[in-house]
Amino acid sequence: MTTSTNSAAQKKPRTMSGPAKAGDFLDSRTGAAKAVREFARKVFPDHWSFLLGEVALYSFIVLVLTGVFLAIFFVPSMAEVHYPTDQLPTSMQGVEMSEAFKSTLELSFEVRGGLLMRQMHHWAALLFMAAITAHMFRVFFTGAFRRPRELNWVVGFTLLILGLLAGFTGYSLPDDVLSGNGLRIADGVAKSIPILGSYVSYGLFGGEFPGTVIIPRLFTAHILLVPGLILALVSIHLMMVVVHKHTQYPGPGKTNKNVVGYPVLPVYAAKAGGFFFIVFGVIALMGAFLSINNVWNYGPYDPSPVSAGAQPDWYMLFLEGALRLMPGQTEYVIGGYTLSLNILVPGVVIPGVLFTLLGAWPFIEKAATKDTGEHHILDRPRNAPVRTAIGVSIITAFLVLVIAGSNDLVATHLGLDLNLITWVLRFGFFLLPWLAFYLTKRICLALQRRDRELVLHGHETGRVVQLENGAMMEVHRPLNPYERWTLVSFEDRAPIEIEPEVDANGIERKGYKADRIKQRLSRFFYEDRVRPVSPQELAAAHEEHAHLASTSVATLDPKDQEAVYRALEAKSKVDSNRS
Q1: Helix H segments across 417-477?
Q2: Is 288 helix (H, G, I), strand (E, B) or coil?
Q3: Would you say 307 and 86 are in contact if contact means Cβ atoms under 8 Å apart?
Q4: Which of 148, 229, 333, 343 has its Cα between 20 and 30 A from that of 495?
Q5: Which stretches of 32-86 are assigned E, i.e. beta strand?
């Protein structure tokens, strides 16, 4: 018996290149192709304010890269040594110091590129915190924290706290006079906590300050614990951005059900990659040309000296300023125990209230609106006057504390009295935020009224014509649909209404007191408001303008006639849309 095979029926195996084989191998075992394909088609809007979050992400990448280099050479030990007499800087030769400070000096003067890496790491940390703060305020002012992004706001808020913790732990590692004074302040704040203060301090420093274990503990937290948590939360943050889709600013064609922008591949990925190298390059230039944290000018930590003009990094200046503004007389002895309100209030209470308010803000605003809908269109800050005013007042209070943290430099550079500056800032801390709140709210309401007039009457052209009956009329140029959409597409939020205190049978209703608090909160937010222009109001305004214009169109010059005809055309479009 013979068998014949049909060669045409045999399929020739497909040949694949190396990258294709690797991709096929990975996809067949992980199913990653579907996820990559879905992510590559994800659309992101194009607006400059969305780059603030990217600056924070890219700064963190620079922090990780430079931090790995520094961790190789840094010695996290508080063992006492003497600096070699044949190494730079000459001012430190033979000086007794810790291993941590010695390795920091050697990183700066003996390791090739070490000083550049140190300064890049420090500048990247400052930029990281600045970008996070700006990004969170952008989210706050535009209402991007509303449902379904409340949890993402909490994640971002936690990232802000972790950034502060990362900055503090890294700032304290060189063990110089400046960082040592910062640790002494932290020890004082910990000890000011009633009942638990001494236990917190002993647990942190492993005994009486400064102990011998704080630098190794801070090093472990700085390179392992805090970065690990930041990486995990950044991953969760980005995953939520993809799942919830990106927010976008109001405009024609933009709704809560779509995203207008560019896909990740190839447009957005190329732009993001280029922007990363821009951020990296700027940080590298700053590290190369802008000197920062020259620890050899301060010397190793010694509890006795406190250098003048010593300030922490900018993101911790508010705490320094609060401590400087608090009167020192607010210290009391109760039952043999000292209650240090002069440290407890500025070091614990004020930051606690500030951060609690920020972290809980989405839920506070939700209680004022009872809004359960999803929001993917951002607010214009002027359309949320109370929220915008509160944000500006918080920034104002923060700036007052920052200036207070540098009150000695302000006094010496401007030739002013230090005590006078301190008293002015004390009053300013309580008065300026309220003034900023009032002015910001009034400005937002005025801008809303201006937008309303602009929608109803159009742009002023400066041309005034006289009608047949002798009346004078200014020719207005109507808004195009794109301008009008932006000015009218926002929600008309009104104060919430609650049921009466007693029902029809005269029985007191449960939960009335809680509802009453929510109603007062809602009135605080939305009692003063400007409603968006309704289609009926817009049509009535166009009819009035068209009637005035049609009475004497023939008497106008060609330019004015063109403007009037444009207004009539806009009116007809509004009428057709209504029908």
Answers
A1: 418-457
A2: helix
A3: no
A4: 148
A5: 43-44, 80-82
Query: Is residue 565 pLDDT above 60, yes or no?
Result: no
Cα 96 from Cα 301, distance rounded (Å): 10
Residue 380: DSSP 8-state: P
Distance CA 182, CA 303 (A): 11
Structure tokens at 274: 């280029």
Task: Write down the pLDDT at residue 1.
Answer: 43
Residues of the chain with CATH 1.20.810.10: 54-251+261-308+315-379
Per-residue pLDDT band for 332 (boundaries 50, 70, 90) equals confident
What would the DSSP string read from start to end of 191-253?
HTSTTTHHHHHHHHHTSSTT-SSHHHHHHHIIIIIHHHHHHHHHHHHHHHHHHH---B---TT
Please tell me what DSSP assigns to residue 98.
E
Give the largest Cα separation in the chain, rounded: 115
Identity of the residue numbered 434: W
> Cβ of 304: how many Cβ atoms within 10 Å?
5
Backbone angles phi, psi at 474, to 5 degrees: -90, 130
Tokens of 216: 């190794």
Torsion of CA 175, 179, 182, 184, to 10 degrees: 30
Q: At residue 323, what is the residue type?
A: L
| Superfamily of 54-251+261-308+315-379 according to CATH | Cytochrome Bc1 Complex; Chain C (1.20.810.10)
Closest by Cα among 378, 361, 325 to 160 = 361
Q: Taken in order 103, 107, 109, 115, is the CA torsion positive or negative?
A: negative
Helix (H), strand (E) at residue 472? strand 472-477
CA–CA dist 250, 382 (Å, integer): 13
Q: What angle do CA 315, 422, 318 make, to 5 degrees?
A: 10
Q: Name the least confident of 26-35, 129-138, 356-365, 564-573.
A: 564-573
Question: Is residue 565 a contact partner of residue 526, using CB atoms and an 8 Å limit?
Answer: no
**Residue owning tokens 């706290």:** 161
Tokens linked to 21: 């084989």
Of 537, 540, 534, 545, nearest in space to 568 by CA:
545
SS (H, E, C) 476-532: EECCCHHHHHHHHCCCCCCCCCCCCCECCCCCECCCHHHHHHHHHHHHHHHCCCCCC
Query: Hey, is 118 helix, strand or coil?
Result: helix
Q: Residue written as tokens 């927010």?
A: 247
